[in-house]
Design brief:
The complex is a heterodimer of chains A (about 500) and B (about 110). With about 500 residues, chain A is an all-alpha fold. Chain A has 21 helices and two strands. Chain B has three helices and no strands. The chains are: A mainly alpha (about 500), B mainly alpha (about 110).
């Protein structure tokens, strides 16, 4: 059984690093890199493995039967998220090997990084509400510490803000889990879904509200987004790309999809709320990015805007909309990780994040400049790159579902996206030279990881070709849209019922 | 019912404190109050009037027991809250070293 090792291996590695690699920082980096490679292979293997197991593998702790014990559920959606987590984290670990030359305490960084991966893998796999809360807390706990890793005044301030918002949202989630337990006397997600089918209590709307606010705070939907543009830019660059690329998607978007689509059966009120909030996020994030002069802050607001696109696709609730949403989720994690790494490389070379003090970098940093151009074109939706296809699918899905006005908003914001990324390109890599001198060259591992991610920007558009789409993205969409399969498996395990 | 409403009121007190107070220490305490209210709520839903402690022994037979699962959850939640509070407190100390104040309105070097 492969499933529990996604949690065990990084958790073990975190403590191994803390125990033996305190003085020897190369060993810490080595352990992290090896774990990254192992998880990468395992997650891709798990996707292949699923086709032979009717699309789902269950693991029950200590061999107890399902509703009593904590269960881990590996299906196509979980496996898809695991692949995103492990690929981006492997590249981020490789990036940080030389990026961390400016910092002290490398082993702490890698130990916390491993704990963050533990939490995220756990969230992607768990089939138990309280377990979901625990894993969310594990990953957020390390995320707070990693945002404050540099111990500068701004970083501490950002981490404090993030920690307060995170604590409020986690408390809301725990509260809603408590209410769910009082309605159904069960914590197993599939069992709760089965018991809620016959439940007409109005209290469930309180649970919906608390879950939307709780997970919305974690995924930075617009009324709850204020922490993101502070927290994500303040972290070291590899952590920014992990937070923006993966963490908000796993803790926020994935958890919302899992809970609302598979357990609650996609209630209409949820879809409408998410649709409206998605559009508001898209517009507000896009307009706020236009005004930024701090390069990483611009990328942070851009994340808010792009998350809006994903929620627009989910809120439509049609198969095409969901397909677009998960494809955009994958693409966004690739190019936003790439763009944050570019910003990190520029910061490494110039020691500033202010775009007014850059300009003309394309000659000095050719690789950073080229890969950043690829990332910008992808995120703005220019044809050969992956962002074009996912945005196109979402826009077509809007029109098909009878919401042409929403499609118009999506196109308009896409143009605004192009505008602020052209602004970033113009003031950072082209135009007049405003910086004094380059302090340090961009090291090898930074360049390599940026090139790999830029390659992935092009390669991942392959997933939309008919033939490949059926075995990859369509499988994930099926899991989200199938309202019965996730809760069916629990039935034979319950003898006599309750 | 009154007890549930009072627990919810305690939760709102915590939320009010966390969102309106200006002192960092008070914000941390408010987060603590929110956590306690949720723990109280979990204990309340486990309580059965006139029930005994949930330990299965041969002499007791089939009497009504309180629900043991939320009690286990509360223990875990308390440990997590302890960790979060410790982290917040250490961040508060570091912020005080940098800014020389606990007033959140003066801890504003990030724009926007």
């Amino acid at each position: 059984m492969i499933t529990p090792y996604f949690v065990i291996i990084p958790l073990f590695a975190a403590f191994l690093i803390a125990l033996i690699a305190r003085k020897k920082e190369n060993i810490a980096a080595g352990i992290a890199l090896i774990v990254g490679i192992i998880l990468c292979i395992m997650s891709i293997y798990s996707f292949v493995l699923l086709s032979g197991n009717e699309g789902a593998i269950y693991y029950h702790f200590s061999n107890w039967k399902a509703p009593i014990t904590i269960s881990l559920v590996l299906d196509y959606l979980s496996s898809f998220m695991l692949i995103i987590i492990s690929v981006i984290s492997l590249i981020a670990i490789f990036y940080s090997l030389q990026y961390l030359n400016h910092y002290t305490g490398k082993w702490q960084f890698f130990a916390l990084f491993m704990l963050m991966i533990t939490g995220m893998n756990g969230v992607a796999l768990t089939g138990d509400f309280f377990n979901l809360f625990v894993f969310i807390e594990i990953s957020l706990f390390s995320a707070y510490s990693l945002v404050a890793f540099g111990c500068e005044a701004e970083e501490l301030e950002a981490a404090f803000k993030y920690a307060i918002v995170g604590a409020i949202s986690s408390t809301l989630i725990l509260f809603s889990v408590g209410i769910l337990y009082s309605i159904t006397s069960s914590l197993n997600m599939a069992d709760v879904g089965r018991l809620l089918l016959n439940e007409k209590s109005k209290v469930i709307y309180l649970v919906y509200g608390m879950m939307i606010v709780g997970f919305g705070l974690k995924s930075a939907l617009v009324p709850f987004h204020a922490w993101l543009p502070d927290a994500h830019p303040s972290a070291p660059a590899p952590i920014s790309s992990m937070l923006s690329g993966v963490l908000i998607k796993v803790l926020g978007i994935y958890a919302l999809i899992r809970v609302f689509f598979n357990v609650f059966g996609a209630p209409q009120i949820f879809l409408q709320i998410i649709l409206i909030l998605g559009i508001i996020s898209m517009v507000v994030g896009g307009l706020m990015s236009l005004m930024q002069w701090d390069i990483k802050r611009l990328l942070g607001f851009s994340t808010v805007s792009q998350v809006g696109y994903i929620f627009l696709g989910i809120g439509l609730g049609t198969p095409l909309g969901i397909l677009g949403a998960i494809f955009h989720l994958l693409n966004h994690s690739i190019f936003k990780a790439l763009l944050f790494m570019n910003a990190g490389a520029v910061e490494y070379a110039l020691d500033t994040r202010d775009m007014k003090q850059m300009g003309g970098l394309s000659k000095k940093l050719p690789i950073t400049s080229t890969t950043s151009m690829i990332g910008s074109l992808s995120i703005s939706g220019i044809p050969p790159f992956n962002g074009f296809f996912s945005k196109l699918i979402i826009i077509i899905a809007c029109i098909q579902a009878g919401h042409p006005i929403y499609a118009g908003w999506a196109i308009l914001i896409s143009i605004i996206t192009l505008a602020y990324y052209l602004k970033m390109q113009r003031f950072t890599f082209y135009g007049k030279q405003n910086f004094k001198k380059i302090f340090e060259k961009v090291p090898f591992t930074l360049k390599t990881s940026m090139i790999i991610l830029a390659g992935l920007c092009v390669i991942s558009s392959v997933l939309i070709i008919p033939g490949i789409k059926e075995v990859t993205l369509d499988k994930v969409t099926e899991v989200i849209l199938d309202k019965t399969k996730y809760i069916e498996y629990i039935k034979p395990l319950i003898l006599g019922g309750r | 019912m009154t007890l549930y409403l009072m627990t919810f009121f305690l939760f709102l007190v915590g939320l009010y404190g966390a969102t309106t107070k200006r002192d960092i220490i008070k914000i941390i305490l408010a987060i603590g109050i929110m956590g306690y209210s949720v723990n109280l709520f979990l204990i309340l839903i486990a309580y059965r009037s006139g029930a005994i402690y949930p330990i299965l022994t041969k002499s007791l037979g089939k009497e009504l027991m309180v629900d043991p699962l939320p009690q286990a959850l509360v223990l875990t939640a308390i440990v997590i809250e302890l960790g979060i509070t410790a982290l917040l407190a250490s961040l508060a100390i570091r912020i005080f070293e940098k800014y020389k104040t606990f007033d959140i309105t003066q801890v504003r070097r990030l724009k926007g």
